[in-house]
Every structure is written in C-alpha cells, then in structure tokens.
Design goal:
With 135 residues, this protein is mainly beta. The chain contains one helix and ten strands. It starts with a strand and ends with a strand.
Length: 135
C-alpha cells in the first residue's frame, strides 16, 4: 500500500463484528478494543495488520501489544475488500495504564504506509470506533 492513510474517529453506525470467541476473550481481562472500518475505492483494495502493532501511552511511553485481530489478516498475508461494501475489523490490545489519558496506535514497522493513529483520547470504556480513509 503506497497510499497515505488518514483516520477519523467518527462512526455513523456501530460495527457488528462481535463473535462468541471475542466475548470469551474479553472476559479474561480488561483490554482496549479498536473497531475500524473502510470503504474500498477499487477492486484491488486489500488490507493487513502487522503483529507488532501496539498502543503507546503518550505520557509514559508504555506499550500495550496487540493481542488479537478479527476480520483482518496478519502480515505477510492480505485480506481483500469487496468494492462497494464497508469493510470492518477489530483489534484487541492489552490494557493501558490506569492513568493514561491519550495514546497512539502504531504499526511498528519500517514500511511506508504503516498505520499510525495519533493522539487518541482515552475513554472510560476503552472501546473506540475509527474510520480509515486512504488519500
């Protein structure tokens, strides 16, 4: 993906990716959940996430690793998206420190086009909805 990526935090309608496996996973401990969606603009759109994606507490530098991915491939594999249909995926991360108020989500790889969502304001629920757009 050579396109620039930008993100917004608005979501017109809730995502519906929750599965029984996801529910069981969430019972184990408190995690941070990022739901995201994208509207593909070509028949060739594909997406993936690198396993070393993490959340970074902007005050302390603490890194919370990604624990699970739903409906998106881990690199080096790709997930193809269907033109005209909203593509949705969910990422689950280890919990952030209790005093964290803002954080980044970083796909920590040297590639260009890596995912980097900056300055996400922490919510009480630790559940976030992000729209992903390609320039």
């Amino acid at each position: 993906m050579s396109s620039q990526i930008k993100y917004t935090s608005t979501l017109a309608e809730p995502l519906k990716i929750i599965t029984p496996e996801f529910d069981l996973f969430m019972l184990e401990e408190r995690q941070v959940i990022l739901h995201s969606y994208h509207f593909p603009i070509s028949f060739l759109d594909r997406i993936r996430i690198h396993p070393n994606t993490c959340l970074i507490d902007l005050d302390t530098g603490h890194r919370s690793p990604m624990l699970q991915n739903f409906n998106i491939s881990l690199a080096p594999d790709w997930t193809w998206m269907e033109l005209g249909r909203r593509f949705e995926f969910t990422l689950v991360f280890a919990g952030l420190p209790k005093d964290c108020t803002r954080f980044d989500m970083l796909e920590d790889v040297p590639d260009t086009g890596r995912l980097h969502i900056r300055n996400i304001q922490r919510s009480k629920s630790d559940v976030y909805y992000l729209r992903m757009d390609f320039d």
